[in-house]
Amino acid sequence: MVTAFDLDSQPLSIYTIGCTLTCTDSGSLLDASSLNVIITDANDNTPQFSQAMYSFTLTVGSTVGTRIGQVIATDRDVSSNNNHVSFTLSSTTVFNIDSGGNIILTGAASLANPYIVTVTAIDSGGLSSTSILQVLVLTNTANSATTTESANDGFFSYTENIAWFSCALALGAGMFGLMGYLLYRYCKMKAVGRFVLQLKHRCKLRVTPGEGGTT
Ligand SMILES: [Ca+2]
Ligand SMILES: [Ca+2]
C-alpha cells in the first residue's frame, strides 16, 4: 500500500482513511473487507524562527531579571508531541531564555557591544534550527534628555516648589498694589496742591481791587 500524497500535511493529529479490500480467484469468486488506516503525526517539521536575526537594545546598569525581548519559533507539526518548542542560548552568563522565548538579563551587561549569541529552537523529537541574537548595550546618556524633561514637567509635583511659587506670586502682587497706592497718593497730593495754588490766586485777585479803591 503506497500513499499518493503527504498524509502528514493534513490539519489533524490523528485521522482515519476507510478502504474496501476485495480479492478474487481465477473463477471470479470474490470476497470484500474493510480497512481503516489511522494516520498519526510524524515529527517531520523543524521549528522555524520568525526572523533570521533578532536585535534588541539594553541600557547599561539594568537590573538582573530585565526582559530584553522575545524570539518566536513555530513548528508545523500538528501534534503537541512534535510541535513543542524549547529554546537554548549559546554559552553566555549574561542572558538566559525561558520557555516562551523571552530573553532575560542574568548578569551585569558591559558596554562590550554588541553581544552576539546563537539561539536554538528544538522540538521534542530533537529537530532544531538556529537564529542569531544581537543585544546592543547603551549608556543612559540617551535617556538624560527625557529625564530632564520629566523633571521640568514635575515642577509643581513638589510641595516646596508650589510654596515658593505662591510666595513669589503674592510678593509680586503686593508690590504691584503698593506702587499703585503710592501713585494714587502722589496724584492726589498734586491735585490738592494745584487746588491750593488756585485758591491763593483767587484770593489775591479779590484783594487787589479793594486796595486800589482805598488809594
Ligand atoms: Ca517538529
Ligand atoms: Ca508532522
UniProtKB/TrEMBL annotation:
Where does the protein end up?
Membrane
**Top-level taxon in the UniProt lineage:** Eukaryota
- What is the membrane topology listed in the Swiss-Prot or TrEMBL record? Single-pass membrane protein
Give the UniProt keywords, A-Z: Calcium, Glycoprotein, Membrane, Repeat, Transmembrane, Transmembrane helix
Listed transmembrane segments = 162-184
Q: Which GO terms describe its cellular component?
A: membrane
Q: Which GO terms describe its molecular function?
A: calcium ion binding
Quick one: where is this thing mainly located?
membrane
> Record keywords: Ribonucleoprotein included?
no
InterPro entries, per the entry:
Cadherin-like_dom, Cadherin-like_sf, Cadherin_CS, Protocadherin/Cadherin-CA
Q: Specify the Cadherin domain's residue ranges.
A: 7-49, 50-148
Q: What is this protein called?
A: Cadherin domain-containing protein
| Native species | Sinanodonta woodiana
What is this organism's lineage?
Answer: Eukaryota, Metazoa, Spiralia, Lophotrochozoa, Mollusca
